[in-house]
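Same chain as my last thread, 95 residues:
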Amino acid sequence: MKRSGYDIANEPPVKAAVMVRRPDGSLTGEMSELGMTKAILATSKPPLAHVKRSLRHAITRLHKSGITSCQDASGNTILLTALRELEGENALKVN
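reply #2:
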């Protein structure tokens, strides 16, 4: 959390952020919603080729289990770009 820029002892509250605190007010590390913003921005982004490779592998595993469609509501720019490219390559064999 420190490496992401959080002040564990004195992080100010943020509207629409869930940041669980200890009785002394310090952060526990459990957070969601907009509380994750600093952590997400500090996380390195995988190369597009890796994301596409991972998606192809995941689709293969889904098909082996008989799954032909899935839904994810947490898409980000790199994931959506990879899905768009796979669809353009006619390699997105899942609905």
